[in-house]
Design a protein that fits this description.
alpha+beta; YefM-like fold
């Protein structure tokens, strides 16, 4: 990831855009501080697209950890000893 001052980014805008189109976010600073990020449209749309909750959970780090055996499959099962009796 490259960082450009605003002045340099204005002078070399075509290079900033070319790199962004190669899926390399380009950071632009103003007054020495991060100001904006230039992204390819496809990268931006991927970031803001709504995610199907089922796909999100299937691809989550937790799902990978369970699949790799790092976390036992029954780690989230309700255990009878943790349930409490409620009078109704």
């Amino acid at each position: 990831m490259s960082s450009w001052s605003l002045e340099r980014a204005k002078n070399q805008l075509s290079e900033v855009v070319r790199r962004a189109l190669e899926h390399e976010p380009q950071f632009v600073t103003r007054g020495g501080r991060d100001a904006v990020v230039v992204l390819a449209t496809a990268d931006y749309e991927r970031l803001v697209a709504p995610v199907n909750i089922v796909d999100f959970l299937r691809n989550s780090p937790l799902a990978r950890a369970v699949a790799n055996g790092d976390i036992p499959e029954d780690a989230f099962d309700r255990r009878p000893e943790t349930m409490r009796q409620i009078d109704m």
